[in-house]
Design brief:
5 helices, single chain, mainly alpha, two-stranded antiparallel sheet
């Protein structure tokens, strides 16, 4: 199953260095609603589910999310910050941790969690698009967003087929 939109990703670049934009991206990068969290969530699910079909889809989506993580990390670096596994969009740095993963083993619950997570990711990416003013960041965020819509569609179809 195709888990990535058939469209190239834009070049990694920014108009100018911006600590503020870098901080905004860290929420997408390594928070409880981030690409890092999605990777860990889907990886965990591949270990506890018995369906080869679903685990292969989860692995493929996790690989796409890893690419998103890499893009965001490189953008954060291009903006002038270190891409650490933390949400720096607050007064305190909130480091990513394993408590963010839902450790459920029921397939229906897992699909519900994944649908909700993808909906939240879409919302978060849309919010970032509305507040940043860097055209190159917007191009990258918009391209990642296309994949997130596809992931939501995939999880929705998997749930329909239960």
């Amino acid at each position: 199953m195709k888990c990535q939109v058939n469209k190239p990703y834009p070049k990694i670049r920014v108009e100018k260095k911006s600590l503020e934009n870098a901080k905004i991206l860290t929420h997408l990068y390594a928070s409880n609603e981030s690409e890092l969290n999605a990777i860990m969530q889907y990886s965990y699910q591949t270990m506890v589910l018995d369906s080869e079909e679903i685990t292969s889809i989860l692995k493929a989506i996790a690989v796409v999310e890893m690419h998103h993580l890499e893009i965001l990390g490189k953008l954060i670096k291009a903006l002038g910050c270190r891409p650490i596994y933390a949400d720096c969009n607050y007064h305190d740095v909130l480091y990513w941790n394993g408590d963010y993963v839902y450790y459920d083993m029921d397939l229906k619950t897992i699909l519900d969690i994944n649908i909700e997570s993808e909906q939240q990711a879409i919302y978060n990416y849309q919010m970032v698009l509305s507040v940043i003013d860097d055209i190159y960041l917007k191009e990258n965020i918009a391209r990642i967003l296309e994949d997130e819509y596809l992931h939501l569609e995939i999880f929705g179809k998997l749930k329909e087929n239960l």
